[in-house]
Amino acid sequence: MKKIILDCDPGMDDSMALVMAVKSSEIDLLAVTAVHGNYPVSITSANVLKTLGMLGRTDIPAAKGMEMPMVRTSPSDPFSHGSDGQAEANLPLPDKPLHDKHAVNLIIDLVKQHPGEISFAATGPLSNLAMALRIAPEILPLIKDVTAISGAFGLNKYAFLNATGDTPQSEWNVYVDPEAAKIVYESGIPFTAIGLDTATSFDVDFSESDIADFEASPNREAKFLSNAIQFVRRRGYDAYCTCIDCMAVAYLIEPSIITTEQALVGVEIKDGLTLGMTVRDGRHHHTWEQLPRISIAVSADYQRFLALLKNLVLA
Ligand code: BDR
Ligand code: CA
Fold it and tell me: Which of 51, 110, 171, 240 could cross-link with 204 by S-S, CB 3.0 to 4.6 Å?
């Protein structure tokens, strides 16, 4: 079993990523750390608890993290996940409180307790991880790897067609806290960025019979997903929006679902038109070797991804 910390900003798709992480027999979920992003951290941390409550797994530690980006104020999300951040699922808040440690401190402590063993699935802005690296740089070589929903690399039409940040070519998690992204990209920790190119394909879709299966299931998480799909469709969006973040967890469960390649990538931190862009140097000459070399997702097997997601939701 892989030891994982899920760092997230639920968000309906973060909630579904959490469902997958909790239900997969491949994952030992050590903690869930919430960060600002889709909503203020008071809401995202409550949504972590609500999702764990839905799954009957409030034994898993849930901690509240950074309220703000490293140096900026948090922008408001132009794509709404509904008034509750969970597609109006209105899940009850369980009795279990949040962990008494701040998420950043919990991350530092867990990494020190399990040196070289923890993989991060990061599905929100990277503020918690970046702050942990700033406060306790000694944890850097102790982190096994990070897989993040992060960036847009211009590999295909989905990279920018479905751009989620509030500039033409940025992805939301990087756009919200570009300085944090820069710190983590440049850290040297083995880093896999699953960008919009692969995580927002229209091939990630559900049939009427899938939805009927979700509705017929006794599992509350199946109804949660069905409700989210109908919520986004009613508002003119496509069903992939409900499970963008699931790709990071799917990759940790079944790495062969996603094909990656190495790339030199810089994060744009200047305000204006290009804020939050993840600029890939794909030139065959004069390349900027000083840019961080990371793994980026270049394609995904969507049939296997959807099969994994559906199996876990219905299990
Ligand atoms: C990211 O933006 C958020 O709205 C989603 O939860 C996902 O993490 C995609 O750009
Ligand atoms: Ca997210």
Answer: 240
